[in-house]
Amino acid sequence: MIHASGVTRSRGGRVILHGIEIVAEAGEVVGLLGVNGAGKTSLLEILAGVHPADDGRILLGGHDLHQDPDATRRQLGFAPEHPPLSDELTVREHLTFVVDLRGVDRARVPTTLDTHGLREVADHPTSVLSQGWRRRVATACAMVHDPTVLLLDEPTTGLDPSARLALRRHVRDHADRGGTVLWSTHEIAEARAVCSRVVVLRDGRVVASVDLEGAGRQDVRVVTAVQDPAVGDALRAVPGVDTVARDGEGWVVHTGQDVRAAIARAAAPFDLLRLEPADALTHLVVGSEPTP
What we know:
Structural class: alpha/beta
CATH topology of the largest domain: Rossmann fold
CATH class of the largest domain: Alpha Beta
Oligomer: single chain
Strand order of the largest sheet: 6-7-8-3-9-10
Radius of gyration: 21 Å
Low-confidence stretches: none
Number of domains: 2
Order of helices and strands: EEEHEEHEHHHEHEHEEEHEEHEHE
Strand content: 25-35%
Helix content: 25-40%
CATH superfamily of the largest domain: P-loop containing nucleotide triphosphate hydrolases
């Protein structure tokens, strides 16, 4: 449902996205994970058609964003990090505006108010709402027409714990009905809570795609007496190892399987000192020379 290939973008003479490749299928909630400035918002804005890419191709639901932008946007819902809400309109009026624009039944408005817990502020202008309430309104506007592809940029910013849980449930339900969700966040715990897979961005590049089913339970940090790139090469050659990242005097190994014995054998010729639990996802996000 989402297929981006070779997406590049420059701004002010600086390349901010370097040949991004992302694929997300129907029924998936895929996390776009990275620290602030990694390129997450820039990529989502390109996928949403807000800004053009300098190069690359984007297919959403089989439609080419460049060649057929109208067909692409009809099936798209986008909640940006800073919602462009009108201060003069009420919450109900915002939702009504969206369904009229999308050409769908106005009966979706009261249903959406209830689903997203907005009934009590339905007739309040958004100018009087807190950041958390405004975030909920933006997400409701993105989902009111039941889009095929849903793009969410830091959607839980300002939400209290109960609202976070409710949003995760709405998004998972959306995916269970066949929708595709790209959820941008800088919080690893948030990604683990809602996503089945994450694409890790760093400095405008995709550095890893990690299946979160079981991720983190088998990750290990390998410390050897020998400090040599050959250690990393030996660890990458172990069947079942997904990624290896340098971490100070050690190596963080991500694997969805328990292959600690094989990892120890591979590291033994380099004077293995110890194996210890680790979280490879953290190292991939913050940057420790990840190598797929």
